[in-house]
Amino acid sequence: MKIFTASQIYEADKFTINKQQITSDALMERAATKLFDWMHSRLQGAQVKIHLFCGIGNNGGDGVALARHLHEHGYDIAVYVVNYSEKRSKDFLINLDRLKERKLWPEFLDSDCSLPEITPNDIIVDAIFGIGLNRAPDAWVANLIKHLNSSSAFVLSVDIPSGLPSNRSPWDGEHVVRASYVLSFQVPKLVFFLPETGVYQNQWEILDIGLDSEFLVKTDTDYELIGRPEIMPMYRPRLKFSHKGTYGHSVIIGGSYGKIGAVQLASNACLSAGSGLVTAFVPECGYHSLQTSIPEIMVLTDDADDSISEIDIPFVPTAIGVGMGMGTKDETIKAFGSFLKKVETSIVIDADGLNILAKQPNLLKDVPKQSVLTPHPKELERLIGKWKDDFDKLEKAKSFSMKNDCIIVIKGAHSITVYKDKGFVNTTGNPGMATAGSGDVLTGMITGLMAQGYAPLQAAIFGVYLHGLAGDVGVSTAGYEALKASGIIENIGNAYMELLRPPNKENEEKV
Ligand SMILES: NC(=O)C1=CN([C@@H]2O[C@H](COP(=O)(O)OP(=O)(O)OC[C@H]3O[C@@H](n4cnc5c(N)ncnc54)[C@H](O)[C@@H]3O)[C@@H](O)[C@H]2O)[C@@H](O)CC1
Ligand SMILES: Nc1ncnc2c1ncn2[C@@H]1O[C@H](COP(=O)(O)OP(=O)(O)O)[C@@H](O)[C@H]1O
Ligand SMILES: [K+]
């Protein structure tokens, strides 16, 4: 699913209004009807107090129109107009008049007003600011937002939590509504998926308000949300008359004394992702543990006992994953540098492979084109430098990717795979995966996919999705705290099956 910017959404509005020959008010009515249907289907007329806080722009207009529908269906509502500007939007005013025609008089809030009382069982509808927010809210509006946040009532935000800008970090985090649920029109907003800004909402859902599909299909976006519909076409089915050679020979290079487990996890994950053959290349000290723990893999060893000093692979691997647990000793840096000079096809670089690149940026020129780099936030910072906020981070990652023609997987709660000027935002995974070694598993999986013929960018996007899905299946039995990296590996097969599971009858009926 495409992630549009605010200006693209405004363009989509205009395009829809022209093409479908409707008024902007009719579009607002569609939005309000969808909001109402969503609430009504859950509340079923329950007499719970609903406080609607409405701004004076179109977000406020949505709120006021929603208030009318709720009133007409007998709900117990209180409407507040958060009067933060004289510049009221045309459609807000139309909807305000419609309320007044029904003898519903909102309370107008301004800098002198007292704050409405809200009890824990009430519902707050937050329609103060939408995607039009372009500066910090005034002090009294910020104060109102803090008041809403201090209540324990359920907060339903319209389109986006108020006070959260759509294209930068907030001016002050305390002045952003903490939404229990966001009903976002037509498309998700990028801020929902970034670590600094995703914290303002618990859950989000898209409401289809019928923006024109021609515009949505034709318009290119900088970011795409990756779910099952985007992943399925990438899947490469296994062929009946295939053999292990069909699915490639992966080599996993890494490890040092006390960190052989990283290679073990990556190699195991590589096999489970479907690589035909897997060879691990480790320092001598890793030989016995690898041979005994994973009988399916082959092991090559370095001459040195406790760290890698020379990488010598006596065949041409189909795919290579390198760096986990490898350390950054001088001899290892040298070995990694010479290895990069020899290798010709795209590789996957993780952990200490990335740390070495950050220490010795001159090695970057030898990294094969379209290699996949899988940094966690600290490794990313070492590579691209400090960033001001998440948006700056993404821009820096994009220029790094452009300059070095590499794919960067920015790992985190919603890992984002960046290639040149595009970002692919993952939707699977959970906090149970914040556990030692889960990154090694990802590197192994992406390597295993490349061995099977997935192009590097597809291997990265598909691998991140499948890794998260394996984690999601894993927590369903292990629980968040007890999920381990090896538990993610054990569920790679279940993740494939979950991915390939035909939609069941029940789901079909719901659609
Ligand atoms: N295609 C869509 O998604 C649709 C969106 N609609 C709604 O329209 C909203 C956008 O409406 P608007 O463009 O009117 O913008 P908002 O309602 O978000 O904000 C209103 C206006 O306030 C001003 N403003 C911005 N920051 C301010 C601040 N800190 N203090 C005081 N004033 C400030 C701006 O001039 C802005 O246009 C969306 O979020 C959505 O709720 C719907 O009405 C219909 C269709
Ligand atoms: N809160 C979270 N939600 C979803 N995925 C997560 C979360 N925390 C971590 N992960 C995933 O787990 C992996 C952690 O990688 P990394 O930090 O390199 O671990 P390690 O170095 O221990 O192998 C990444 O793929 C990341 O996206
Ligand atoms: K809002």
UniProtKB/TrEMBL annotation:
Domain YjeF N-terminal: 9-217
Residues engaged in binding K(+): 59, 126, 162
Note describing how the cofactor binds: Binds 1 potassium ion per subunit.
Alphabetized Pfam families for the sequence: Carb_kinase, YjeF_N
One term of GO molecular function: ADP-dependent NAD(P)H-hydrate dehydratase activity
Gene3D superfamilies the record matches: 3.40.1190.20, YjeF N-terminal domain (3.40.50.10260)
Source organism, top-level taxon: Bacteria
Keywords noted in UniProt: ATP-binding, Isomerase, Lyase, Metal-binding, Multifunctional enzyme, NAD, NADP, Nucleotide-binding, Potassium
Catalytic activity: (6R)-NADHX = (6S)-NADHX; (6R)-NADPHX = (6S)-NADPHX; (6S)-NADHX + ADP = AMP + phosphate + NADH + H(+); (6S)-NADPHX + ADP = AMP + phosphate + NADPH + H(+)
Residues that bind (6S)-NADPHX: 58-62, 130-136, 159, 262, 325, 376, 440
Residues that hold AMP according to the record: 411-415, 439
Enzyme Commission number(s): 4.2.1.136, 5.1.99.6
Limits of the YjeF C-terminal domain: 227-499
UniProt xrefs under InterPro entries: Carbohydrate_kinase_pred_CS, CARKD, Nnr, Ribokinase-like, YjeF_N_dom, YjeF_N_dom_sf
One record GO biological process: metabolite repair
Required cofactor(s): Mg(2+); K(+)
Family named by the database record: Belongs to the NnrE/AIBP family. In the N-terminal section; belongs to the NnrE/AIBP family.
Physiological role: Catalyzes the epimerization of the S- and R-forms of NAD(P)HX, a damaged form of NAD(P)H that is a result of enzymatic or heat-dependent hydration. This is a prerequisite for the S-specific NAD(P)H-hydrate dehydratase to allow the repair of both epimers of NAD(P)HX. Bifunctional enzyme that catalyzes the epimerization of the S- and R-forms of NAD(P)HX and the dehydration of the S-form of NAD(P)HX at the expense of ADP, which is converted to AMP. This allows the repair of both epimers of NAD(P)HX, a damaged form of NAD(P)H that is a result of enzymatic or heat-dependent hydration.
PANTHER family to which the protein is assigned, alphabetical: ATP-DEPENDENT (S)-NAD(P)H-HYDRATE DEHYDRATASE, ATP-DEPENDENT (S)-NAD(P)H-HYDRATE DEHYDRATASE FAMILY MEMBER
Record text on subunit structure and interactions: Homotetramer.
HAMAP family registered for this protein in UniProt: NADHX_dehydratase, NADHX_epimerase
Name by which UniProt lists this protein: Bifunctional NAD(P)H-hydrate repair enzyme
Gene encoding the protein: nnrE
